[in-house]
Design a protein that fits this description.
alpha/beta; 2 domains; two-stranded antiparallel ribbon; 8 helices; 22% strand
Amino acid sequence: MRKTSKKSTSMEKSNGEDHVKTERVVKKESPDKPKRKLRSVSSRSHQDKVKSENVDGMVVKVESEYDGSGDTVPNRETKLTKSSKKDDSVKRIKRGLEQAIYNARAEGNRSLAMFVRNQRQWNAKPMDDATVERWNSVLKETEFPIDQILPHGSYLMNPGSPDPEKLMKSREAMLDECRRCERLGILYYNFHPVIETMAGQGNTVGSTFEEIHSIISMVKNKQRVGVCIDTCHIFAAGYDIRSKTAYDETMRKFDEVIGFKYLKAVHLNDSKGGVGCRADRHENIGAGKIGKNGFKCIMEDERLDGIPLILETPEGDYPREMITLYSL
């Protein structure tokens, strides 16, 4: 329950083909890690030297989302980024659920988010043993940290739907996805209302810290629940983070009402709307109403060390956007 700038189209079924969505993730390393300006990482899966820019201990990560309803999708040309290519060759990689790990390692990254099944369909092919075996094999091969993998729940689910049929489907889908996570050894599962802060639009639940606290209070085993802060959502819901004073006050309220022990991830998004607008409209970092100062506060907050910071910004110049975050 935790979790990126969108690099390609959302994954969905179209004319019988699968589309894979790849997203960017930024993670802050713990303060005890040495600070490096630039390092070269060897991907054990592809044997490529990957350059990943580090500033004050922060590294770039990639989030890949794949429709886990099938074993693999047809081979697809995967062009490595300019900084990570040893030459101008194009790699052809057989894609499956485990490809999310390969994508992250290929760019020297340490965290990813993904879908464990098609997020836009109610029905999904059962996860077979071969898929689990491939996943475990790649996980072991790449030595990828399982606690840095954060699946996102299906877009169709609404655990609070007043429609009995949709409520039943939502519950069944959530149980199915949790069982898939369990089979893959994944520790966290992010769904909307870990619990993600909402923007407050319509009749959604989870837009205030008090509402999230209320949800957590009803969970018996609280070790199995967590929270993901979305910067655009909390800003749209009325929590100001544009200045150091405002940010400190908002995070003080979060700690007082919910508690940092429940924070498992942060979605980094600027906002097209102003504070309290109740509109879930993501904007690129520094181009929205939150501004760079707000994100500077986040990047300097030592309480977030080791917690995945995930970009969900609109299509754009992602390397430049990540460099912007590094420079804050």
